[in-house]
Amino acid sequence: MKEIVTLEKETATSVKEKISGSEAVIKCLLAEGVETLYGYPGGAIMPVYDQLHHYQDQLHHVLARHEQGAIHAAQGYARISGKVGVVIATSGPGATNLVTGIADAQIDSTPLVCITGQVNSKLLGSDAFQETDIVGISTPVTKWNHQITKASDIPEVLAKAFYIAKSGRPGPVLIDITKDVQFEEFDFSYQKCLQIRSYQPVPVADEVKIQEAAALINSAKKPLIVWGQGVILSEAEAIFKTMVEKSGIPAAWTILGASALPTSHPLNVGMVGMHGNYGPNVLTNECDVLIAIGMRFDDRVTGNLNFYAKQAKVIHFEIDPAEVDKNVKADIPVIGDAKASLTQLLPYLKEKKHADWYQRFKDLYAIEYDKVIKKDLHPTKEGLTMGEVIKEINLQSKGNAAIVSDVGQHQMIACRYSDFNMTKSNITSGGLGTMGFALPAAIGAKMAAPERDVVAVIGDGGYQMTIQELGTVFQQRIPLKIVVLNNEFLGMVRQWQQLFFDKRYASTEMTNPDFVAIAKGYYIDAKKVTKRSELNSSVKEMMETDGPYFLEVCVEKEGNVFPMVPAGASVSDIRLE
Amino acid sequence: MEENKPYTISIYTENNIGLLNRISAIFQRRHINIESINSSVSEIENISKWTIVVELTEDRMKKIIGQIEKQVEVIKAYYHRDDEIIYQESCLFKIKSELLFEERQIQNIIKESNANIVTVNKEFFVLEKSGRAEEITLLYRELKLFGIMQFTRSGRIAVSKEEMKISTMLEAFSN
Fold first, then answer.
1. What residue spans of A269-318 are helical by DSSP H?
2. CATH T-level fold of B5-80
3. Is A4 close to B14, i.e. CB distance below 8 A?
4. Which of A31, A115, A231, B74 could bridge across to A260 with cysteines, CB 3.0–4.6 Å?
5. ipTM of this complex prediction, to 2 decimal places
6. CB-based contact A474:A524 (threshold 8 Å)
7. Percent of chain A beyond pLDDT 70?
8. pTM over 0.90
9. Counting beta carbons within 10 angstroms of the beta carbon of residue B144, is it exposed (0 to 12), middle (13 to 18) or buried (19 or more)?
10. Which of A194, A198, A305 to mutate to probe the B interface, most B CBs <10 Å?
């Protein structure tokens, strides 16, 4: 592999030393600046855990209660910090339990390095105890993966793993290390990976395309920006804001793009997609130029592609060439890093205001407010709404909290109504829609950003998928705020059953346990709210508590999330009721 | 609707374990049948060359190329129409030796088809034929009448008429 990878020149101080493969793994992690990792021990990874014990003053290993919890925690850690999340697990079930998180990280472009133990290399293929072909299993859901059967390969492979996970469009990497290799001694030295000859992570945007894009933007009468997580991943928030302000273009976000531009910014016109805002969805089919930045035209964003922005010229700023023309044909593709491309673009942009066009968004917002938002945030009916809970969290956190949501109705409500003052504040499973994501992801997020308020907003269904991670919250004493919006239903599925399956509520009603008692069982302060009058003080108490806190809010059972683009419909056919 | 057409894909990759799985998964995931697949050394040291034949619309073909090139260990991928490449496949027939002497027609078929006899023994002889798929199919049909003990054919291999600038790309990396 030597000739194909460029590694950083060895520094004069680094001396070769004979150490075991497992110690080498730890030294590689330290060399990559890893401080925290998440995992679960087991037979085939025990030598590495033994070294973790020796290095516990330098590396903080967080014991999850299930490998899925460990990997979601690493995802939360990566999403809020921009660093590579690190997960470690044993072979067999330990490794397969990571798969959901790996797939989630792959589709949401989250940088992860997963290290799994494997049976002794002599036993490979023998159906040994806890043997599974995790390299084979994880291939379609990893950016790269590799099995190590020689200790001397450890430094180079791990250097490559970190480089691949973080560079370009980030993603998960899995490294499988056989147990014999963990014991094997070799001369260790570490060099960071700087490039790989078969891999071009950051294409440089074509200046001609930049100029064409600028000309089209400058001549547009009704332009619309839709931005995604690419803005956050390339740390382009500042230049993006400048670009939006200079061009005066209304800007809407995908679920993973949320928080890159503050909610309060006047040109932030809300969320696109299935449960997005009315204005940006309807006006997608009226704009003359659609400027997509760091987003991939997911089907939850576009609805029926045959009726998506057909009238518009499309400019697509995108780092991954495979995303260009994949779902929506780009008239002007600008392939490159969002921050670099926007920096190139900015000088060519004319200062503009699109007052009449902007007013259209305001007008449509007023309609949405009247039909949907008012009822969600200022309900007059008896039952508590999910929206008013989010409104209280906004109030108490002043919009500075990071909101980690799970999947379903509460997720849509949390994304629609949360106030985000700062970037990397909306952590949720977007592409894969992994129920059970939020609690462990919030653990990782809070550990990576201890100075921030981190609030996990979870439904009663998803909460019970990874509820065991309360044990991790307790053991690590993580001052996390957990809000369960309990409607005693798998709400989103129930909503679809109501709308499209004649209210046949097949297996969506939940008989729930005493959630407060469970939290208290883990010595976590907990409270249950059933009345509107208790909501404000309870959320306040939660936010003011120093340690972890669990708040269950019983919300109306059959509330629906609107607006809604029904499956197969055009975004402009979005329903308000 | 655009029609499916045969395309030949050339992929230059690092020679690493697991890449077959990674490449074939791209097709499997999209429910695309691989008509033939071949992996071998290439003109460049330590670089593998893959030749894959699929039937797709050009629009899908382009997207698949994007997905292939996205793989970390893939250096470059191209797709070609049949008129853009020189391509061949090869096959082996195992046939009873007695037929070679008893059926005069077989000898004519062998001669006319430019097939080569690889080996002959008392029991059987082995015939090798390289050429276009349709030539091989024709030969197969002709020999089938006499009885074939075993038959196997390779995937397509191809070289492009246009240059594929892999060496230039690799040089650019090492400089």
1. 278-284, 299-302
2. Alpha-Beta Plaits (3.30.70)
3. yes
4. A231
5. 0.92
6. yes
7. 97
8. yes
9. exposed
10. A198
